[in-house]
Amino acid sequence: MIKSYLTLFRVPQWIKNFFVFVPLIFSKNLFHGEYFLITFWGFLLFCLTSSAVYVINDIIDVEADRAHPLKQFRPLASGKISKRGALISVYILVIIIAASLYQFNYLFAIVLFSYFILNIFYSFYFKHIVILDVFSIAAGFMLRILGGAFIIHVEISSWLILTTMFISLFLGIMKRHSELTLSAENDTLQTRKVLVQYSLNFADQIATIAAAGVIICYALYTVSARTVSVFKTDKLIYTTPIVVFGIFRYMFLVYINKKGENTTHIMLTDISMIITVLLYILVTVLILYKIV
Question: What are phi and psi of 192, to 5 degrees?
Fold first, then answer.
């Protein structure tokens, strides 16, 4: 039963909430004990909030999930957990989140509440509206970044916000591409309603634009006057090839290896992606903290 609830809460998806740590790293406070601790607690609150949203989404989509070749094994769709049990778990998560917010400033609380409301609207409405569905996903990542910044009272570069927007748009549209491919290969498969408004060609064009946006915005961020002034170095440009490789590798996995419907699965299982992410973090920390 515990395993079923952990699956219901989508614990592997918590990896997406590591975006909360981005402001901590780029403000050069990674090794500041107090800042790290408060950011970690903020990360946990985002994890609990996202889990509450996932449960609500599964309750809404339970019938559609039962017709899906992979989602039919989810705890609610398979009957391992009842709707009543799922609702109770949502109430418990919300109580824990509300009781924990007192230790954070009001700006973080507003961001977390906005994240929850955004995802509720996504679950009920936005995910059925073409283009707005992927922009809603992107907004969720941007709120994570803002939340991480508000926790430790630091400003964040506009270029970094734009980079986050484009990379989340990229991941969102690549997920749609994978779902379209899966739907095309199985005519009897019931998929999300919004897919009828997409096409593979349209999704590919958006993905290309988003990928270019990630690379351009990140490259401009590394060489911007503010970045060089704040970090007292122009070496951050050397992390750009790692970012480019990561984007190309992800596109390869989606287009050639027919993966991409589960972003988290790719990030946790593909050795090349794991090495790329770890290498990026290592090189960035070494450069920003003057270790090299």
Answer: -60, 145
Q: What does pTM read for this prediction?
A: 0.89
Task: Domain count for the chain, please give it.
Answer: 2
Q: In the chain, what percentage of residues exceed pLDDT 70?
A: 96
Q: How far apart are CA 1 and CA 89, in angstroms?
A: 13
pLDDT higher than threshold 70 for residue 170:
yes
The answer to whether residues 132 and 176 belong to one domain is no
The pLDDT, as a whole number, for residue 190 is: 52
* Whole-angstrom distance, CA of residue 143 vs CA of residue 150: 10
35-39's contacts with Cβ under 8 Å and 24+ in sequence apart are 35/151, 35/152, 38/103, 38/104, 38/151, 38/152, 39/148, 39/151, 39/152
Domain-terminating residue out of 132, 153, 174: 153
pLDDT of residue 156: 86
Range of the domain at 277: 157-292
Q: What is the CATH number of the domain that holds 114?
A: 1.10.357.140
Could you tell me which of 171, 178, 172, 81 has the C-alpha nearest to residue 127? 172
Q: Within a 10 A sphere around the Cβ of 143, how many other Cβ atoms?
A: 23
Scored b (16 or more CB within 10 A) or e, 150-175 reads: bbbeeebbebbbbbbbbbbbbbbbbb
Find the helix or strand (DSSP H, E) in which 97 lies. helix 83-100
- Distance (Å, whole) CA 119 – CA 140: 8
Cβ atoms < 10 Å from Cβ of 29: 16
